[in-house]
Amino acid sequence: MKKKIRNIAIIAHIDHGKTTLVDALLQQSQIFRENQAIPTRAMDSYDQEQERGITIFAKPTSIDYEGTKINIIDTPGHADFSAEVERILGTVNSVLLVVDAKEGPMPQTRFVLSKSLKMGLKPIVVLNKIDRPHADPERVLNETFDLFVELSATDEQLDFSYCYASALEGYALNNVDDPKENLRPLLDLILRATPAPEGDAAAPFLIQATQVTYDDFLGRQACGRILNGSVKKGQYICHINAAGKSSRSQISRVEGFRGLEKIELDEAGVGDIVVLSGVPEIMIGDALCDPNNPTTLPPIHLEEPHVTVDLLVNDGPLVGKSGKHVTLNKLRDRLLRERRANISYKITEASNNEQKISLAGRGELHLAILLEAMRREGFEYCVSKPQVILKEIDGTVCEPVDRIYIEVPEEFSGVVIEQLSKKRGEMQNLQTNEQGISQIEFLIPTRGIMGYRNDFLTATRGLGIMTRIFESYEPHKGEIVGRSRGVLISMSSGKANAYALFNLQDRGELFSNAGDEVYEGMIVGEHSRDNDLIVNAIRGKQLTNVRASGTDESLSLSPPRKFTLEQAIGYINDDEWIEVTPDAIRLRKSILSEVERKRKKV
Q: Which of 25, 232, 329, 487 has the fewest CB atoms within 10 Å distance of its CB?
C-alpha cells in the first residue's frame, strides 16, 4: 500500500518568518522528547546561519500528522541564495508562501512565487505575523492576489488556499476571528491543498540528485525525492551524469529525515525524500536509476551568476603565519570541490597562465559565505574587487540591473534618493504611510549597489531596511561614482604603535589597532579626503631626558573599523586587494600600485 506523503517547501522574503514557522511545526508535532532541549531557529544548523541570523542552505525535515508524513523543506529568503530555492522546487508538490501581514509581498516574494508558478505548483499562502502592531492581513491578501495576477498565474493557481498565522505565537487561523489555539488549521490545509507525490511504486527505481553533501565516513551523498520505484541498502543502481555517461554503484546507506535528525531506513519508496550513500561521483542534477532501465533526466537549470571576483595566492610578508593552506593548488582543489556540491557558483581558471581563479556568484553575500567558510578551514588567499558579468545582447553590451526596495523614515528619504540617483538609479515608486515610513523602489545597476549598504546604514542612522533582487540585463549605464575617499597606506613594516596611530586619527578613520602587524602597501585606514596618503603607522615617540609635568598626554585611540568579508568586498577599489587569513582580514594596495608608488618616491 502506498504511504501517505506530502512534500512541501516553505518560501518567502527574508525575515518573513519561514524558519520560525518550521520551529513551531516541529514543536507541535510531538517528535521531541519531553526533556529534549529544542533550539530556536532549529533548522539553521550551519555556523554562519546562526551567526548572521539568516538561512543559507535549503534543508529538509519531516513530521507526522494524522497518519501522513509531511516532508518540509526550509529555504533561504535572501536573494543571493535564490539558487537554493530554484533547485529544490522540483522536489516538492506545493509551497507555503509566507507573507508578512504588515509588509506584504516584497522583492524576493515575487521571485520565489514566480519560480513556483512557472513550475506549475499551486501555492498555499500563509499571512504571517498577524499579531504585529499595524498588521493588515486583508490588504496584504489583496496585494498577494494582485501579485499572482501580475505573474500570469493560471485560473487554478489564482484560486489559492490561504490562512492566517503567527509563527512566533504558534497558531494558525482559517478566519481572523477564530480562536488562537495551535497550528492544526495550517496542517489540515496542507493535507487538503497539497497533492500527493506522483510516481509508480511498481516501476523501476528513479531519483534525481537535488543536493549533494559529504560525510567523513560515507563519502558523497545524494539527496532527492524518489520519482519511481523503491530503493534499499545494498541495491545496485545506475548513475547517469550530465554528459550521459553511466556507471554502476551500490547503495551503502539509505537515510530519511525526522525532526532535526537523519534516520537510517531499510527501504524508501515513491515520494520519499532520502539521502543515498555509495555513489562516489554524484553531482547535482545526476540521475540514479535501475541498471536494467537506464533513464536520463533533464538537468537542473539555475539563473547565471552576476558578480565575479578573482582569488590569488597570498604573497604578502605575513603569509603562512595563521593559515595551513596557502598554495594555488590547495585553493583550486577546494573551489572545485565546492563546485561539485553547489552549482550556484561558477568557478573558472585563467587561460593565460595567470595565477588566479575566478569565482562567480549571485552577489557579495553569496561570495562572502564561501570565502568565509574557506577562511575558517585554514585557507589564506587574496580577493579582488568584484566585477559584474557583462553580456552582449543583440550587439549591445548589457549589465545586470537590480530592483531594490527600501523602507526608511521619511526624514531620510531625500538623502537616500540623492545617493542612489548618483549611482545611476532610477526611482520607480515612492510612497509614505501614516506612520511616516517611506517605501521607495529603484532600478539600479548591480555595480551601483555593491558596497552601498554601509553608506545606507550611515545615512539612515541604522533605521533603514534595504533588500534587492536581480531584475534583468539592460544596456550598460556608463561610469558610476565609486568610493569618495582615499585610504591611508603604510610605508613601513612592523607593529603599529599607539603614538603613531594617535597622530593619524586626525587624518581619517583607522582600520588597525595598536600592536597589529602592518607592512608596506597595507591599508591601515580611510583618508578624510579623496586622495590616498602614505603614512608611517609604526613610528615611535622620540625620547628625551627632559621630564616635565604635563609633557606627556594620555593617548586615547578610537576603536578601529573592522571589516567582515562582505563589507571588505564592497569597500575596496579596483587597485586594491583583500588579504584573507584565518585570524585577520587586511586590505592592501595591488602590486602594480606599490611599484608606481615607489617610483614616485624616487
A: 329
